[in-house]
Amino acid sequence: MPETGTDSIHGHPMAPWLIPALKVVLPHVGTIISAAAPAFTKRGADASVPPPQLVQQQIAELQAAASQNAAHVKELAAQLQRTVAALEQAAELAQARMRRTLVLAAGAAGVSVISAGFALLALLGN
Asked: Which residues contact 79 (CB under 8 A, 6 or more apart)?
């Protein structure tokens, strides 16, 4: 059974930033797929539309799709920026915790060395 936070297939630890990033991106997958679905007028779809008007209609549809895509890209960029900022903040917090843990461990090691020295002096003094 793999440890918590590991890839169950390969047994490698998962990147800690992956879960928050997926939580941000996954709600928009449906929007991305629906935007990428073919929504344009096909050549043979409407025989009653003359070719020049068909081309104009297709151009208008492409322009609308490009505008919609630009809006989606801006939204995703803003979300990515917020995610990166949150990840940077979490990394800074983790570094601060790591420094505190290191200082605490060094202090505990120092106290144990001093205690061992006193114990050794007590044994040799008797």
From this structure: 24, 25, 28
